[in-house]
Design goal:
Blueprint: H1 2-12, E1 25-28, H2 30-51, H3 58-73, E2 75-78
Antiparallel strand pairs: 1-2
């Protein structure tokens, strides 16, 4: 019961200044975005082939999946926009 009362007091007497918003976001390494575009193109080509009745190419499919997994590993979490280095900002080529 005591912890319930303490929790209620903290909730009722907390001001907006006391609350620190903690939102993390993920970014891809800048050059990885280009890799993602290439994999997207390969996946679209693969899907179109399936729609057109081509045989399922397991090796190609697995390669696309592995590339996507590699891209996922290149993500990095940040707490604020200020700490995002230039290398994690996308630039069109």
């Amino acid at each position: 019961m005591k912890t319930l009362i303490e929790t209620a007091r903290k909730f009722l007497y907390t001001t907006e200044e006391d609350i620190k918003l903690e939102e993390r976001f993920l970014r891809l390494f800048g050059s990885t975005v280009h890799d993602l575009q290439k994999v997207t193109s390969r996946l679209n080509t693969f899907c179109n082939g399936q729609v057109n009745g081509n045989d399922f190419d397991e090796k190609e499919f697995n390669d696309i999946v592995n590339k996507l997994k590699g891209i996922k590993l290149d993500t990095k979490a940040f707490d604020s926009e200020d700490e995002v280095p230039v290398t994690y900002q996308y630039k069109k080529k």
